[in-house]
Design brief:
Alpha-Beta Plaits, globular, eight-stranded mixed beta sheet, 24% strand, alpha+beta, 11 strands, 311 residues, Double Stranded RNA Binding Domain
């Protein structure tokens, strides 16, 4: 029913676009000079809408149309990296607001002094995974540290993970006997808001060693369901990664992804620039990017991958 609803919505949008084109053509055929400004606005809106539809048609991966799980992990750099991870969290939440996506923070671990150590966010909306998969990788920040008394320049790193949300999937089989489930009390920043009841859930998948936890819901059952959703996504990613590695090894092109290979740099000092190292797409307005204006970077990367994915 969820898939039917999504397809129905998409068909209706195409039908609306077709009707708007018909209406604009009829307006143009009137050749009324007083309507030229309105006609220009309508034409520009149609071109923008058509460009969006054309781009989304390129998102043809098996999970591109669906929801996503976005995880951010602070890297080396102590408080600066934890603050950077929180800046990224804000950036992506702002971006999801622009797209009209629904978000839910499933798990959040605060830093000791500032920022966050890690966060896992559920992102629900059409093409959420298709767009966000371009953000997977290491993000690098260069700035004058607000946590350094000498106000020196620091470089911080954070890892962004993007996983498709998968329901009970035939590709992912989980044996209940392979799970160790621990229940504990969740807590907020600095030990605040400690839950009186043990509602937080930690699940360990024994064969792979994958550990997931969820603690932001007050219900133990809801936290367990969310944790299982994250576990399924991580197991699916592991399975796909192993398949890709085998193919790459046969081709002789496999290289292990390391922390040092950042996908994007955000430089706030000595100059201001955000640059994606995969596509060379860059932007000088760093504040706009940190406020969630990411579409240029996302579309540049996904467009560069169309030919690669087809081959």
């Amino acid at each position: 029913m969820k898939e039917i609803s999504a397809l129905k919505e998409e068909v209706e949008e195409w039908q609306t676009l077709r009707q708007n084109i018909t209406d604009t053509l009829e307006l143009a055929q009137l050749e009324d000079r007083s309507m030229y400004n309105e006609l220009e606005r309508e034409t520009n809106a149609l071109e923008s809408e058509l460009a969006t539809r054309e781009f989304e048609a390129k998102l043809s991966g098996p999970y591109d149309r669906g929801d996503a799980l976005l995880a951010i992990h602070a890297g080396a750099g102590g408080t600066d990296s934890q603050d950077w991870a929180e800046m990224l969290q804000r950036m992506y939440l702002r971006w999801t607001e622009r797209k009209g996506y629904k978000t839910d923070i499933l798990d959040l671990t605060y830093g000791e002094e500032a920022g966050i150590k890690s966060v896992t966010i559920s992102v629900e909306g059409r093409y959420a995974y298709g767009y966000l998969r371009s953000e997977k990788g290491v993000h690098r920040l260069v700035r004058l540290s607000p946590f350094d008394s000498a106000h020196r320049r620091h470089t911080s790193f954070a890892m962004v993970e993007v996983l498709p949300q998968v329901e009970e999937d035939s590709q992912v089989e989980i044996n209940p006997d392979d799970l160790r489930i621990d229940v504990f009390r969740s807590s907020g920043a600095g030990g605040q808001n400690v839950q009186k009841n043990a509602t937080a859930i930690r699940i360990t998948h024994l064969p792979t060693g994958i550990v997931v936890s969820c603690q932001n819901e007050r219900s133990q059952l809801q936290n367990k369901q969310n944790a299982m959703m994250v576990l399924r996504a991580r197991l699916l990613e592991k399975k796909q990664q192993e398949q890709e590695e085998k193919i790459a090894e046969l081709r002789g092109e496999y290289q292990k992804a390391e922390w040092g290979s950042q996908i994007r740099s955000y430089v706030l000092h000595p100059y201001q620039m955000v640059k994606d190292h995969r596509t060379e797409h860059e932007r000088g307005n760093t504040q706009a990017v940190l406020d969630g204006d990411l579409d240029g970077f996302i579309e540049a990367y996904l467009s560069s991958q169309v030919g690669v994915n087809q081959t």
